[in-house]
Each structure stands twice: as C-alpha cells, then as structure tokens.
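dude i think i finally got it to work??
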Amino acid sequence: MRWPTRVRLGWQADRLRVRFDCADEDAWGTLTRRDSPLWTEEVVELFLAPGDATPRRYFELELAPTGIVFDARVESPRGDRHGMSVDPDWNCPGLETQVERTGAGSDWAATLSIPWRACCGGGPLPRRWRLNLYRIERPRFPGALPEHSAWSPTLVSPADFHRPARFGHLELLY
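look at this
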C-alpha cells in the first residue's frame, strides 16, 4: 500500500467509535450532499451488522475527507451484488462525525461515532458483530489507478466491498 491507513476502534455502552487516520498527498472531494456516491471519490467506509453469522442485512457508513456522509441500510440476500438493495434514505440516528487535517500534506482523520441502537434496535447489545473497514484513495487526475484497502480483504478484482462473508468478527468484552 502506498497510502497507509490506521484504524482505531473503541466502544461505550451506547456507541461504537471508529477513527481512520489516512496518509494522503491530495485529499479531495467534490460531492456536497449527504448520501452522494462518495465511493466515486476518496472515502473511508465501515460496514457493520449485529451477530456472528454472515450478514444478509448490514449498515454502510462512509465519510469523505470533506466531511460529507453516506449512510445506508443494505439487504444482500445472496451475500453479493446479485439481488442487493441499498436504502440511502436510511439515516443513522444519532451518528456523529468529524474530519480533520492531520500531519503533513493532506493527511486526514475521519471519526465516526455510531449509536448501537441505530444498528440493533432497542434490544440488548449483542456481544458479537460482523464488521469491515475500507478506504478508497482515488487520485484526482484521470488515468491514475485508485488504491483500495480493507481490514478484511474481499479477495476479488475489481475491488468489491459488498462481500459480507469476508467481514471480520468483532467481539465486545463486557
């Protein structure tokens, strides 16, 4: 990877906190509206589902270096793009985000604070979750190849992050 990304997770009784630290020489974005197709530019992404099984329903949260958010509920009955539906009208209730420039050049950090209740309803907090973390570093100039990185690689080319069987496992210790 030319452009490393470091991710830190923390949790409290009411929320999951995720921070991406991104090395970058030219962090950019042109989209200005919530739920715009951020994956066409530079972005960090989090896919999250309660439970230990391969999810067929999960939540997708994205944050651009400009602070724009994409959040959606995803239904993936086959565990891939066949028959997949994405509901960008779902807005994560209580989601808090922050983007800041860090270090030299255009390095940036993205922080998401996600209320557990937004992803698991009002029931008890599950101990086990399925999760994946992604970054797309997309050069601004035409012809240059983007760099796709994942915490749990999806092992497909071209890159496709909607592979819930490849989500990693997260266990909360309480």
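Residues 116-120 form the longest helix (5 residues).
im so relieved honestly
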